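Sequence in, structure out.
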Amino acid sequence: MASGALPVLDVAGFDGPTQSAFVSQLLDAAHGPGFCYIEGHGIESALESELVQAARTFFHLPESDRRTIAIGNSPHFRGYTILGDERTAGERDWRDQIDIGPDETALPLTTSDPPWLRLRGPNQWPAKVPRLRKVVRPWLERMEALALKIMRALALGLGQTESYFDAVLQPTPYPRVKIIRYPPQPATGGTPQGLGLHHDSGLLSFILQDAVGGLQVASGEGLIDVAPRPGAYIMNLGEMLQIATDGYLRATPHRVVSPAQDKERISIAYFFNPRLDAVFEQIPLPPDLAAKATGGQNLNPGDPVFTTFGANTLKIRMRAHPDVTERFYKDVALESL
């Protein structure tokens, strides 16, 4: 397995006289490997540690307690997914997790409303770990501020104004969080697929991982190991930005391999997305960037990309969680989204 270093970017450089240098470095990373480390974000290490510890506390609860917030109870795809119950490209992932989104009141909907509006609604929080809810909220606020700064920098790098992406982000974006445990491999019956090879679907993804590691990113060398870097988030781009730039920006495939038999990995993934009703248009690239755009669609006839973000998100969630689909979305045909 190849190993290599990703670019390391100091986002604090965006606020000051080094802004243009940071924008250039960000654009190079987004056009090249599609992944980088982000430092200088200002998010307190104590808050991150508390979040990871609350996650460990939850995952070490008895299974019966974890199942009280089972994702199968939620039409909004929020809650706990038991080990092996989520799939990537049809194969089981050896991980369990909690899915969290914006805490909202479910909308009163009719059959004429688009089915992706059912994604809006409340989270499920574990009663046995009340600290989890309290620590997730401030962390989400800080992550949104970081993501918005990156989007402003990308807009400048693509030859637009800082506010270019406001049209699809305001009044509020639609983030999603996965609090994930990759347990050690059992002696028998497990799978090395912690998370199958895939690319992300939205705008930006940020990963807070512990010291165990396991993330691998596609490159010209094959797959490279992405080592944990204390104080840094791993950031990558989603398919919406790749398509909107005709491939100038990259949604790079990646995967997670299961830890060794004596290890457990905790990873917190923050996905920054536009509003559910946002339709992402092509970004008019400057000629020098357009000349380097190689095509934006990850070609797979069985995996169409819908123009409305909510439709694309619902497609992915329905495939990943057949139990939720069977209970709440039997009336929805993927091809109709």
